[in-house]
Amino acid sequence: MLTWPQPCTDTSTQNLDLIIKMDPEMDRQLKVGFIGAGNMAFGITKGMMSGNILSGNIKVSAPSIRNLGRFQELGVPVTHSNTEVVCGSDVVFIAVKPHLVPHVLAEISPHVTDRHIVVSVAAGVTLATLEELLPENSVVIRMMPNLPCLVQEGALLFARGSNAKPEDGALLRSLLHRCGLVEEGPETWLDIHTGLSGSGVAFVYLFAEALAEGAVKMGMPSALAHSIASQTVLGAGRVLCDSGKHPAQLRAEVCTPGGTTIYGLHTLEQGGVRAATMSAVESATERARELGRRSSARCTK
After folding, report:
1. Angle between helices 200-217 and 273-299 (to 10 degrees)
2. Which pLDDT tens digit goes with each residue over 256-274?
3. pTM
4. What's the fold here for domain 24-185?
5. Cα-based angle 68, 70, 72 (whole degrees, multiple of 5)
6. Of 185, 229, 234, 290, which has the highest C-beta tally within 10 A?
7. Which residues are annotated as a binding site for NADP(+)?
């Protein structure tokens, strides 16, 4: 049964003192809701549950049961009512497709109060649009995650709205720290983050695929080549994260004079891999900006 133990009529007892927002150890007292049950919602939920948030303190809504089953397997309560989620939550994640945001916010706005923090992960929907569609003085944060959130290795960047205080950002960091890297920046960086990290995941997959195909060309079995390529990308990323060194320094450490690596790097440079990668991030960023303008125009009509 899709039930929720707390009534929606009286939320006064659910108001949390400011100290809860500032103390990560108090996270477990928070109620967190998700409107939308896609991959990002699922990945963030898994990350929070690996931290201080109990499954019973999370609730997820979606119009169809199709995506709710995996949340139920985690012990997370589910519902078909977006209003229930808002009424029973302190932090509400809007995790629906951008074109659905106006409809969802219109539905939940009568139930959003100054105790709520509304976090949107809808691509392209700006803070200004979110604040316009929600009640005056609503606390809004816009965030962009990426696919590796599913395995708690995500890169998440968020920007605070005009009414969101530093402690609201601190709370979000505390909730999401098990999801991967969590950083705050100005909203103008979010589209760049989309090009760098959102789309960048696919760029890395393409490079891993090419690595494996190169090995297949030279005679290695495909399955083994793809397994080694995956581990190579994983290991290189871990060294890059843990060492704190610039990529160029690590690259130089792998090269030996006249060795195999410098010959291979020369071939990559001849093929324009550096310029092509930079251009790919630029193109993806510009596309994110374009889609954002279109989304904002639709949401404000």
Report:
1. 150
2. 999 999 999 999 999 999 9
3. 0.86
4. Rossmann fold (3.40.50)
5. 70
6. 229
7. 35-40, 95-98
